[in-house]
Amino acid sequence: LVIASIDGTTLSRVLQSAADKGVKVVAYDRLIKGSKNVDYYATFDNFQVGVLQANSIVDKLGLKEGKGPFNIELFGGSPDDNNAFFFYDGAMSVLQPHIDSGKLVVRSKQLGMNKVGTLRWDGAVAQARMDNLLSAFYGKEKVHAVLSPYDGLSIGILSSLKGVGYCTAQQPCPVVSGQDAEVPSVKSILKGEQYSTVFKDTRELAKVAANMVDATLTGKQPEINDTKTYNNGVKVVPSYLLKPVSVDASNWQSVLVSSGYYKESQIK
User: Fold this and answer.
1) In angstroms, rounded to a whole number, what is the distance separating the alpha carbons of residues 262 and 190?
2) Dihedral sign of CA atoms 117, 120, 123, 129 in order
């Protein structure tokens, strides 16, 4: 069984039934929680996704060159998606030292997934929250960066920012991150609005999952490169983690078009 779960906490009975019949289970992209009957996990290095998102913000703002302070607001993914916590923790491993030093200021003081999570990865929810943040904390102050964990949220966040005058010659867009290299966000990057995204080549993820299935069916051990990271609450699930790639205006063509993932006509 290869399972790409929506809610990774509700499958324990089904998985027990599979295990009773000797069926191996591969979790695909999202970890299945709370069951001992998850044999393997195929995913990306989701902590590194967050690191890449945060590094794009740090580099663009020039924090390593001593620039700042800058105002930043933080968005997390859906709290019912285990990956969202890895994205957030990866990003905060980079951002927290700059927050602690005062070079990055979260004017709303909203930190932690319980405050910044965005249920169901809903762009409209992110847009509404950004509206509220701007009206409550940025009357006279400017926001310089927004950590967004996913392109669908980034587009909503940018809509909110544009609604109050950002992304103009007088008031450039803040540095907004993203993930998944979705076409609207790649177009936004080319327009100079969204700053970056993180590309996860789903073709490679499918290959890893297929290889896991093939190995299992032929009595071999699937290839694994991580046995520490993904604890589902019952066990650490043996995993294969693929490397994500940061994408911005400087490298979108080589990463997305030259690789055959998109045709240039889809983006321009």
Assistant:
1) 15
2) negative
**Is 262 among the domain residues?**
no
| C-beta separation of 225 from 43 below 8 A | no
| Number of continuous H segments (helices) and E segments (strands) in the chain | 10, 10
**CATH number of domain containing 137:** 3.40.50.2300
| Cis ω for the linkage preceding 172 (within 30 of 0) | no
Can you tell me the distance from the alpha carbon of 62 to that of 70, in angstroms, rounded to the nearest whole number? Answer: 10
- Distance (Å, whole) CA 24 – CA 229: 20
Backbone torsions φ then ψ of 221, nearest 5 degrees: -90, 125
- The H-assigned helical ranges of 21-63 are 46-61
Structural domain of residue 211, as residue ranges? 2-38+201-242
Nearest to 45 by CA among 164, 248, 200, 195: 200
- In three-state secondary structure terms, 175 is strand
Query: 72 has which bridge partners?
Result: 145
- pLDDT, one tens digit per residue, over 46-71 is 999 999 999 999 999 999 999 999 99
Radius of gyration of the chain (CA): 20
Whether residue 250 is contained in a domain is answered as no
Residue 81: strand, helix, or coil: coil
How many distinct structural domains can be found in the chain? Answer: 2
7 band by pLDDT with thresholds 50, 70 and 90: confident
> Which amino acid would we find at residue 243?
K
| 109 belongs to a structural domain | yes
Q: Are residues 93 and 207 in the same domain?
A: no
